[in-house]
Amino acid sequence: MAYILNILPIEDDELMSSYFRRLAQANGFDNPLLFMQAFIWPDVVMDTKQNRTIRDDGFNMLRNFNKCFGDKASAIDFFINTSLYPGIRPVISNADMLILYAFRDNTDDINIIPRRYVQELKYCHVCAKNEIINKGFTWFKRSHNMPGVNVCYKHNCYLNVAGDEQKKDIYYSVSAMETEYAEFAHQMLVSAIDCSNKQTVNALKNRITELGYHIPTGGYAQFCSDTINGKLDDFMPKNTEYILKTNKTSITNNETCETMLKLLFILFRTPDTFQKYIELAETTNNTIPITVGEFSTFVLAYEDEEIDASTGFYSGLKISQKNGKIKVSWDKGEDASKYAVYAAYCGKEFASKPVKTTKSTSATFKKINGKKIDFSKNLKIYVTAYDASGKKIGNTVSAHFAGKNNKKYKNPKAVKLTTTALTIEVGKSAKVKASVKMESGKKKALDDAHGAKLRYKTTNEKIATVDKNGKVTGVAAGTCEVYVYSRNGLAKKCTVTVK
To answer: Exposed (0-12), middle (13-18) or buried (19+): which is 144, by Cβ within 10 Å?
Structure first.
């Protein structure tokens, strides 16, 4: 075996095929296929007429791995660290798919790989630009190439496809759903949940049943009708209802894998929540001891994300509960002349009709859906602002809070920032450090199913972006604001200047 020159280290979140492309270039090969033939599959002639499967190619690679990289190298560790397998394991069902997702790439020149397995290779131009500046080269990331991911979870911009012309207006209309799903897919890779496709199917069944859909009598169809068709039609693949009805146990293509991952996303929101359902199913004989009234589902919480703070109206909300009434107040929106207040119980959808409309910056109400408010439950509120012509300006965040008679949960009473101003350079990052002060007492805070403990929003993504952890990245010179919201809608802002 010839010695491989200039082996470069695997970079952060790097895809296996990306590593071999860089390794081939380091060894003087412009064509990665010829490098793979010379070093990784030396015993096999790469004949395009061969009827070989990806599984054969994959295990040939693993079998020859130690010969190329030394006895101390671990083929399994290499595979895990450079493939999509850790993130998709819960939804795949056989070894063929295990190798399939290790080798997904835009490999048009490798005709021996069946076309149904070839995927477009995606990248973030902001990541690439920063990497070239800092390291002198860039690489393709696993998180960018997870099934169904179209945006960069770090920079909240659309991904480009390798070989295509770079997209213009990559920040245009990136929805909260796409960004949250990209983050979810990344966290699935990081979490590496150890469970089988069968366990996942059971978890999906339990969660959908818990939402009130009786599966044996058409619950899947009704679930799709109520929560996916129309509301999530552009987000979910067309085969969603079919996949649910057939209790898919054999994942045969990328679309099916995408569907399963997105179902986990809308039903569980975070890998940690999904993990809890897997663990509960193992210890409670498939019964989940959580009531819908106490647990805001992501399908419904995502309704809140759809109406999250939008351009033009970033106000926080202040909510008080007294004498059987709820009072909510907010800051005046620029050019706003009228407001509509929407309220619902957590785990329920917002009604299309507001509970109150007003021209002032506060409103008081005592009924939801025509009935007196039950203050023992958890509730949620958001406000929409309109200009004088009746045109919608934007929405506040959705504020989730515990009713004053709730025996389990308490609410935040303040958001604190360590600084109210940041100055950064284009391409550089800094963090908005924030904390939440809770009400006194032994009650606990609402969990992440009701939204993150802290949420961050930028008023101009073309100047600076902010991720879910408060990391602000400069995009272009200028000034904008980054708002930090508590779960119950309290807000503080930090002025960001990009030079």
So the answer is: buried
